[in-house]
Specification:
Elements lengths: L11 H4 L3 H17 L3 H13 L8 H24 L1 H20 L4 H29 L3 H32 L4 H4 L1 H15 L13 H24 L4 H23 L7 H5 L1 H31 L4 H7 L1 H18 L6 H18 L8 H27 L5 H41 L6 H34 L21
Length: about 500
């Protein structure tokens, strides 16, 4: 079977006059997937009040999505390889829209959690298919670079768009529309995909590693569930310890299975490379802190400072702008001249510094003087870190491994978000309860003590997040030892020609 590759401009895909409209369809679908990681954050306080969720359970609105997405992303790539990208792209869109409609209509918290998990399942089909369709639609090197730039800009700005759109929808239409909004977007993308996208046939020889998917996803679910149950039960409860032990055992078995099966979800030689493993770990640990920040700051701004959903969304905008500046104006310019860890280590130190500023939050903190500087430091630090992580992790891999390598970076991002949200939410709610119990000596002060206790819980969790980010910086400094591109081997980011 002939595969269109870079440098073969005579292929039909290069002369298709509608290929740029095809990029619009692919980017629209990817934007929808990225949006859903943040758009629901702004709606979460309203959804929690409406559906009567406990503080311990609210994190499942976020983690149900990121867990299913991250845990099944590698399997989704394999399914796309087997069945064909366009087909799985369209199935992913339709399923995502249906799951979104179900979540919007949720009448109980369990129904919402289930719908969010379904969204993650179909996102895991959608994301690798979108990336692979992009690479097969644009095979000319110059056009491919431009297309990936547009795609990356949309994906990178998804967080900011999610916060602002989430705020507008929650305030003026209700939190349910943060889910309903996916339905018309998905319908437009499906119609566009049928009309504009072309695909090579699937590979009947590809095999699905279903045991690997069950072991990997099962281990992650057990660990996240164990973290979440530590809040009501305590860290020494037999169920909590059992879940954490089972999670570690399942993930250990997953690694063993990947070394034995002929068609592994995650070929182990990819993570045996020191630099690549360091990038995966740095990404996972960095995102633990970032997702925790999203959750706590959303509640702090809306519940403690009484911001409207729209104002809350706008309050996050400096964070995203700082991430974009750090990534495109600092990292992208310096990376050709300095070693990646010379960006990643200072980036994590800056981000941890921003987190430490937030540990000084009180019930009367000023956004301009206390919150904004922390968000700007966080954003610059993340921007300095993310760009070299993606570039270094995907540099120099064999073409047949480029798809699975890209998927592994995304998996570490989603898994870090899942674990971070569950772990930090448990730390925050436990610390809040302890503070309120020990300080509530006068019943007439219950409202004030409760608010102070909530903020105390956030600051304790954010302190842990800052420590985790410093650990990420340490790992980057010790493990990512590759030289600057102009002094070492070529490190142009690999572009997947197929999703492994």
């Amino acid at each position: 079977m002939t595969v269109a590759r870079s440098g073969e401009p005579g292929q039909a895909t290069d002369t298709d006059p509608r290929r740029w409209w095809g990029l619009v369809v692919i980017a629209l679908a990817q934007l929808m997937v990225v949006l859903d990681a943040t758009i629901v954050n702004i709606a979460l306080p309203s959804a929690q009040a409406d559906l009567g969720m406990s503080d311990g359970n609210r994190q499942w609105v976020i983690t149900a999505y990121t867990l299913a997405f991250g845990g099944l992303l590698l399997l989704g790539g394999r399914i796309a390889d087997l069945a064909g990208r366009k087909r799985t792209f369209i199935i992913g869109l339709i399923g995502f829209a249906a799951a979104s409609a179900l979540g919007g209509a949720a009448t109980t918290d369990g129904m919402l959690f289930g719908a969010r998990a379904l969204q993650g399942v179909f996102a895991a089909l959608l994301a690798p298919s979108a990336l692979s369709l992009l690479t097969t639609t644009f095979t000319d090197p110059k056009e491919r670079g431009k297309a990936f730039g547009i795609y990356g800009a949309l994906a990178g700005s998804g967080a900011a768009i999610g916060f602002i759109v989430g705020g507008l929808l929650t305030e003026y239409l209700g939190w349910r529309w943060c889910l309903y909004v996916n339905v018309p977007i998905a319908i437009a993308a499906v119609l566009g995909a049928y009309a504009l996208l072309h695909d090579r046939p699937g590979h009947p020889g590809a095999r699905l590693d279903v045991p690997g998917a069950l072991l990997g996803c099962g281990g992650l679910v057990a660990i996240v569930y164990g973290f979440s149950e530590a809040e009501p039960r305590g860290w020494t409860d037999p169920l909590v310890l059992g879940l954490l032990a089972a999670g570690v055992a399942l993930l250990t078995t997953f690694v063993w299975w990947q070394s034995k099966t002929p068609t592994p979800l995650l070929p182990l030689h990819i993570i045996k490379d020191r630099n690549r493993a360091g990038c995966f770990l740095t990404m996972a640990l960095a995102v633990i802190g970032l997702f925790g920040l999203f959750l706590f700051m959303t509640y702090y701004l809306q519940v403690i400072l009484a911001y409207s959903p729209v104002k809350t969304g706008l309050a996050f905008l400096p964070l995203t702008v700082a991430i974009i500046i750090g990534s495109t104006q600092i990292s992208a310019r310096l990376l050709p001249h300095v070693a990646p860890r010379m960006l990643m280590v200072p980036g994590m130190i800056l981000a941890a510094g921003g987190m430490l500023i937030l540990t000084r939050m009180t019930v009367t903190s000023s956004y301009t003087t206390e919150i904004l500087p922390a968000l700007l430091l966080m954003g610059l630090g993340m921007g300095l870190t993310f760009m070299p992580v993606f570039s270094t992790a995907t540099a120099g891999v064999a073409p047949q491994d480029s798809g699975v390598t890209s998927a592994t970076v995304n998996t570490s991002q989603q898994v870090g978000g899942s674990i971070g949200t569950a772990l930090l939410n448990t730390i925050a709610t436990t610390s809040s309860a302890t503070y309120i119990t020990s300080h509530l000596t006068n019943p007439t002060q219950r409202a004030l003590i409760t608010r102070e206790g909530i903020v105390h819980g956030y600051t304790v969790a954010i302190t842990w997040a800052a420590a985790i980010m410093l650990l990420a910086g340490l790992i980057a400094g010790l493990m990512v030892t590759t030289k600057p591109p102009e002094h070492g081997a070529p490190t142009e980011p690999a572009v997947p020609e197929s999703v492994a």
